[in-house]
UniProtKB/TrEMBL annotation:
The protein's name in its UniProt record: YndM family protein
Domain of life: Bacteria
Transmembrane helix is among the record's keywords: yes
Keywords of the record: Membrane, Transmembrane, Transmembrane helix
Species assigned in the record: Bacillus carboniphilus
Transmembrane segments: 7-25, 31-52, 59-80, 86-107
Length: 148
């Protein structure tokens, strides 16, 4: 259920951006919905479930930009109008989607990939810190063999 909510939020955001930028060319609404759905499905599977979990927000954002630009640019170039203006419009749509994706990735990391803090194990990667010794002064030393 969490994946469905995250996907619908991403679809709404991508759909609004794609429709806003491609509305200049007066395309059929079915074409815009097709481009928005394909872009969202590919970006969600590859970017959010694949790259974001393994490599982090920066790599996922760069991957989402490239994926959005290639998907929107390619599909709109062949389905709406074959011109350089369409490629430039797709570039700016991809930039707008990338700005939204930065905030969306923070939401996804918190909402989908939230770890249970009670069962979380912290692993130290520095081998020098594997065996640590604590030193302290005894503030109140009581002798067991103290004579009264």
């Amino acid at each position: 259920m969490r994946h469905l909510v995250a996907f619908i939020i991403k679809l709404a955001a991508n759909g609004i951006v794609i429709f806003s930028f491609l509305a200049i060319y007066n395309p059929n609404i079915n074409i815009v919905l097709t481009i928005a759905i394909l872009t969202t499905v590919l970006a969600y599977i590859i970017g959010d479930l694949g790259i974001l979990r393994r490599l982090g927000n920066t790599a996922a954002t760069i991957g989402d930009f490239l994926l959005a630009f290639i998907t929107i640019g390619g599909l709109s170039y062949f389905m709406i109008q074959q011109s350089w203006n369409m490629i430039i419009t797709s570039f700016f749509a991809a930039v707008a989607i990338t700005v939204i994706e930065i905030l969306y990735h923070l939401f996804v990391k918190h909402y989908l990939f939230e770890e249970n803090k009670e069962t979380r194990v912290v692993l130290r990667t520095d081998p020098k810190q594997r065996f640590a010794t604590e030193f302290s002064k005894e503030l109140y030393v009581r002798s067991r063999n103290k004579k009264k």
